[in-house]
Amino acid sequence: xxxWWFDDFEAGQVTKTISRTVTEADxxxxxxxxxxxxxxxxxxxxxxxxxxxxxRNAPGFLALVFAEGLYTLTGKTHHGRALxxxxxxxxxxxxxxxxxxxxxxxxxxxxxxxxxxxxxVLTLGHRVINQDGVxxxxxxxxxxxxxxxxx
Length: 151
Fold this sequence. Notes:
By secondary structure, this protein is of the alpha+beta class. The chain contains four helices and six strands, in the order E-E-H-H-H-H-E-E-E-E. Strands 1, 2, 3, 4, 5 and 6 form a six-stranded antiparallel β-sheet that branches.
């Protein structure tokens, strides 16, 4: 896997991650770990019969956590120094058990850090998309990444 330093990023670059299917086990583990004890997430019969989406849907932030994990797998965060922020989170469609999601991540801005020489700040736009091509979430992140060592 190639090394990705701050210097390797420029506005407009797009990275598409691999895909991941969200399982019922993923949803149950996430909600119990996070303490989101809502019947909508814990009871499959209730979700199917009483829920809006006729199936066990995932909490919105499960899609965000999975999308961040998928982006990490690209190797482009390995020289990260800090996650500076997550902004403008929008949940645009449900994620249901059995859905397969991936992320498309666009570099919106890449600038040298004013307060941390030898590092740069990346602003990224994230789109999380399901198997039908429907965006289920959008958000932006700001990250501090290390610049390449002098050669």
